[in-house]
Amino acid sequence: MQLALPEAVDKFWRHLPLDRLWQKLKLLEQLARRATPRQAIAALVLAYAAHFAICRVLLAPLRHIRGSALSRITNLPFILSVTNGRQLREYCEARRKYGKVARLGANIVSVVDPAALKIIYNSHNFRKSAVYDALDWFGPNIFSARDPEFHKQRRRAVYQSYSPAFVNAMEPILYETGPRALASRICRYAEEGVVFDIMQELQLMRIDEIGTTTFGQHFNLVHKREHPLLEWVSKTLKLGIVHMWFPLLRLIPVPQAFSSHYRARASLHNFVATAIEQRCHAITKNRDTLQVLIDAQGVEGERLLTEQELVSELAVQLVISNFQVSLTALWTINLLLENPDTLKQLVYELDHALPDPNNITDNKLVHLPYLDAVIRESTRHRPVVADGLPRVVPKGGCQISGEYIPGNTVVFVSAYALHHEEELWHDPETFRPERWLGPVEQVNEIKKYYIPFSTGVRSCAGQRFAWMLLRLTLATLLRRFTFEALSDQDMTPAMAILMMPAGGEYMVRATKRA
Ligand code: HEM
């Protein structure tokens, strides 16, 4: 039987147990009067927790996305897994348990689906999330930019130093101060039979390369080892990680535990600022990234970057691109040493392409198919930027992989999870460069979900530089030495913004090749 609206309202009021409700409220009032302040506070806290849980669990716009029970209430377990470097396993596990779209926190969603890449990363609609503010060490920069207009403006200035012409012009100096200098250091280790940490050597080499190509200064760390730049850079990165996940720490006075990190960051600032100031007043100008950025002009001939803006761009680039390249080279060497047949085949290709090990140019390497396949496979299997790059769903929400995701949710696709997805890759846990040497259509297909340099409007600006550096480094080292790794080293991938070996080093012995 249908009731008319006034009748239904009347019935509702008649049946509402107002008397009983009133009695309950009175009882509560009496209890509140008798409660001690402690009991009152405890009751308030409990009431707030209950309200919070009900809102998060039952009313939250993300309640239909599957995830662990705790992830429905708080982001804390996710933040803890990121700070402990355990998040990669979690992304893969969440994919297996909950499907392509999984909830990792109260407003955090991980997606493992190539179809999502275009939606999330191909336009500026999905902006970078607030964690990027932690990279504003000395002011906003191209890495941390969240506002699309600001990013476009910076891109116009900064991209002048990533042009093919500039990268090619840098090759001779880069090769001399990078791979060639490292080879001469390793030559000494080989002669003395010394075991050394190749991870550290690659980092020192990379700082030397940045010194010459960016600042026009040759630190010669590979041989002299006394410049504190590597320590400044490492500590600045560590501080960045802490601030990313505990942003409130940025607002309180310097905690004792991090005072040396803040000092290192200040030293890095002084170093970069002094280099810029000296260059602005120098009579002879180098041809390097610093000069390109100082000279960068807009359409009306105006300077695009002030000195302070130059500091923020160059410092963040120094820290981030330093580790990305050296760690990628490290993982490639590690995977080659663990796969002797692949190593043998690569060495065979290099020996034929480079009869003179002292005359190596990128021109001779760029078309070597096996070298290309090895680098591709190592960046698939061990992508150093393995984490999800977080973006914010725009107002109004959107449909991703068959699920509605509301506005303001943080979403990402982790390169590691995508590169290890069993539905996409045949035998994803195996390092197999041959997968990149199949028929063109097959390779073009897998390239669609190969994202070590990210994809879309915020993908890596320095890819050309990175590929050249990797080719030159691997070819130079493998053409001259055989390497043997010490046994029982912990090379499990662990995350600290970038993917590093859990053991923190990779000890090897080198022998000169005939
Ligand atoms: C193997 C080495 C490298 C890897 C794996 C790598 C990877 C990446 C990734 C994944 C991003 C996107 C970051 C994000 O969205 O948060 C990125 C951005 C960027 N990379 Fe690289 N990178 C490498 C080397 C370099 C080098 C050598 C340079 C500079 C010479 C460089 C310059 C940049 C810049 C400027 C951006 C920001 C682009 C933008 O937001 O428009 N990268 N890189």
UniProtKB/TrEMBL annotation:
Keyword presence, Iron? yes
Give the superkingdom in one word. Answer: Eukaryota
Keyword list (alphabetical) reads: Heme, Iron, Metal-binding, Monooxygenase, Oxidoreductase
The record's Pfam families line, in alphabetical order, gives: p450 (PF00067)
Q: What are the BP-aspect GO terms?
A: secondary metabolite biosynthetic process
Annotated heme binding lies at 460
Which InterPro entries does this chain map to?
Cyt_P450, Cyt_P450_CS, Cyt_P450_E_grp-I, Cyt_P450_sf, Cytochrome_P450_monoxygenase
* One example GO MF annotation: iron ion binding
Among SUPFAM superfamilies, the record links this protein to:
Cytochrome P450 (SSF48264)
* Required cofactor names: heme
- UniProt record similarity statement: Belongs to the cytochrome P450 family.
Q: What is this protein called?
A: Cytochrome P450
Protein source organism: Thamnocephalis sphaerospora
